């Protein structure tokens, strides 16, 4: 697992744990506590959705760049192969004559 990914999951876990601990240890009535938990869950859900969209966008960008790079490498490789094979065909033709 990459360091960035591990840090992200650690930070997310720590944030959730901290939020839940703060809510449970605060002196509030049951109704207030449930409302706070609900509000926090909505905020975490929204942030998670935003991060998911950003990650999806980053993956799509990476995939497009990788596809483009592979296509260019393939074209360059085919051109290089043709340049190497052409003298072989010329030699073969001269031997046949």
UniProtKB/TrEMBL annotation:
<keyword id="KW-0812">Transmembrane</keyword>
<feature type="transmembrane region" description="Helical">
    <location>
        <begin position="6"/>
        <end position="26"/>
    </location>
</feature>
<keyword id="KW-1133">Transmembrane helix</keyword>
<dbReference type="InterPro" id="IPR052928">
    <property type="entry name" value="Desiccation-related_membrane"/>
</dbReference>
<dbReference type="InterPro" id="IPR024623">
    <property type="entry name" value="YtxH"/>
</dbReference>
<protein>
    <submittedName>
        <fullName>YtxH domain-containing protein</fullName>
    </submittedName>
</protein>
<keyword id="KW-0472">Membrane</keyword>
<dbReference type="Pfam" id="PF12732">
    <property type="entry name" value="YtxH"/>
</dbReference>
